[in-house]
Amino acid sequence: MTGLEELEESVRRQVGARLFTVLAWIPERRALRRVHSSHPAEYPVGGEKTVEVAQDWLARCVEARRPYFGRDRAAVREIFADHELIESLGCGSIINVPVVREDEVLGVLNILDAEGSYDEESVAKARSLALLAVPALLQAGAA
């Protein structure tokens, strides 16, 4: 098991997740590259996208290094261009947690489950798990 597979299991146990991905932040291109996915058919590893989500999300999660909590489908639809795919997987609530090391954003954890599955305590648990992604994201950045 890789460190990210172990992290996925911890997230499933402590927070809950139908969909879990880890994205590496590539600041020079303002892009995110997927380095782990619980649903590789829908969200393949290696897939890369320039930040196509709302500017508010980028400002909050990457620039301010604060989690984003989309409590319901409306919040997911407002921020994410791929909301139809997200909903097709039974997800309607999302927690995005920046993975930060020494004030540098290395990436983001994306944790999704059914609408109403998460609360502020879930966000706090997800934040505490984010540090477990640091070694894998450092390695991904070197790749």
From TrEMBL:
InterPro entries assigned to the protein according to its UniProt record, in alphabetical order: GAF (IPR003018), GAF-like_dom_sf (IPR029016)
User: A Pfam family this protein belongs to?
Assistant: GAF_2
Top-level lineage group: Bacteria
Q: Which residues form the GAF domain?
A: 27-134
| SUPFAM superfamilies membership | GAF domain-like (SSF55781)
Q: Which residues form a coiled coil?
A: none
Gene3D superfamilies, alphabetized: 3.30.450.40
Identification of the protein by name: GAF domain-containing protein
